[in-house]
Amino acid sequence: MIHISNLTKTYPDGTQALKGINLDLPTGMVGLLGPNGAGKSSLMRTIVGLQQADKGQIRLTLPGSDANAVIDVLKDPHAIRQTLGYLPQYFGVYPNMSCVALLKHMAVLKGLSKKQQAEQIPKLLELTNLSAFANKSVNRFSGGMKQRFGIAQALLGDPKVVIMDEPTAGLDPEERERLHDMLISISKDKLILLSTHIVEDVENLCHYTALLFNGEIKAADSVANLVNTMSGKIWTMPMSDIQTPTLVNQNDTEECQFKMYQLNKSFRFGEPVFRVFSDSQPHKLAQPIQATLQDFYFYTRAQSEEQAPKTQAELSKDTSVRMNGGALK
Ligand SMILES: Nc1ncnc2c1ncn2[C@@H]1O[C@H](COP(=O)(O)OP(=O)(O)OP(=O)(O)O)[C@@H](O)[C@H]1O
């Protein structure tokens, strides 16, 4: 497991990317969810020792090992590099080398012996469905094949901790499904930390997730627990009606205590539909619907935006959002 405490990271231009992160990540498939710019890559790069934190601590206990065998990642970045696999968000340009030659080269960099290379590389090519392309140059691979190659290199040395930054980015549905299969098959005795903004991927694959917004952890729990907190409180209703909302449970007091969040607007058969969070039926046309992790994600985001100090421009934007069915107070 990875234990992170009080981790902060500010870039030289003053951007505070991580604002005192406290997080315990268990073994298995774990999601790190957050919108663009939330700080996911900053956190991942810090965990894998590619950049320094300003302060804080990251401690790693390897799955299946003695609880006392702890690696202090920030003090000993070399040790973590030997025990984890990393799939970065961008690989940059690949050299003009065949898939198998590049894997061998990376295996050497990871310190694998010739025997280990001979054992592991064919298995990894098979696992990632690249055996038929072993002699093809990686820079001629499709996006999905490059992503699978990235996973093969991350798994060299059979690491117990694997960190993947946006692994499904740019993949077509078939490739995404294949990648999901692969991740599930390798996750049994490892901690696989999956960073993404695709909430559905986390709901489908991960048993545990953390939500990162604007450099802060806003929730961390089992996916089932987070979804359960939304249970019975999610409704769908047609967009047209929310513009003049009729609250069915408005109480008698002057100030309405009732709170409703628009979570998500989408379209079905060309007609707008949106999901709202509400303790009770928010409108006579509202229908109850099964809660999802996406509902929790949007609810948490709406709450964290509400708590964040706002500029004048944001405040005037908020008023128009509210008139269209945003957070009603
Ligand atoms: N090297 C850097 N120098 C300055 N600011 C940076 C640097 N890297 C990231 N940032 C900023 O830090 C914040 C967090 O960025 P980060 O890339 O960690 O977010 P992210 O959640 O991974 O986003 P995305 O999903 O878009 O990749 C952003 O405001 C980003 O602009």
TrEMBL record:
Keywords associated with the record: ATP-binding, Nucleotide-binding, Transport
Region (Disordered) residue spans: 308-329
Keyword match Nucleotide-binding: yes
InterPro entries with a match to the protein in the record: AAA+_ATPase, ABC_transporter-like_ATP-bd, ABC_transporter-like_CS, P-loop_NTPase
Residues of the ABC transporter domain: 2-239
Pfam families named among the record's database cross-references: ABC_tran
Annotated GO MF terms: ATP binding; ATP hydrolysis activity
Domain of life: Bacteria
Family designation: Belongs to the ABC transporter superfamily.
Name of the protein in its database record: ABC transporter ATP-binding protein
